[in-house]
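Could you join me in thinking about how sequence relates to backbone shape in a protein? We need material for that, and I hope you will provide a protein of your own picking. Label the sequence line and the structure token line clearly, so we can match residues to local backbone shapes. Would you write everything just below, so we can both look at the same thing?
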Amino acid sequence: MNILETQRLLLRHLSTNDSEFLIELLNDPTFIQNIGDRGVRTIADAHAYVRNGPAASYAKNGFGLSLVILKETSESIGICGLIKRDALEDVDIGYAFLPRYWSMGYAVESTLAVKKYAKDVIGLKRMVAIVDPNNFSSIRVLEKIGFTFEKMVRLSEDDIDLKLFATTL
């Protein structure tokens, strides 16, 4: 089910059919460095990741991470969507793309669509994003779509300090 469409992209709910793509994305060294190791190594791991993460979020919150697909080629290039974390008061936006699709404007294009969806469909008034302080590319994306740095946060005691960006919708 497509939930969003932009000029170049389609965003739809993740499913267990996306397992091979998720294994590639979640094990990319830049994903592990900037976001973390999700321990998804096998098809079974990917199925569990979808069921316990995005699919559970769709059921509980009405939103979650979506697969980002290039319209022109039908290639899966990344994920983007809304996440409700227990450790954060506000819903946050998350995104990750395979490195071969970086610097092409896809992150900005998809996050702007998700931001509009959050306001117009979900009815959010404020949104946040968390990012590793050394992930300068993601920080630039957030700034381009209107987020500003607010404070440093930790999602758990054993986590690193993360930059929290926020925007009103």
In short: The mean pLDDT is 96. The helical segments are 19-26, 29-34, 43-61, 106-122, 136-144. The first strand starts at residue 2 and ends at 5. The first helix runs from residue 19 to 26.
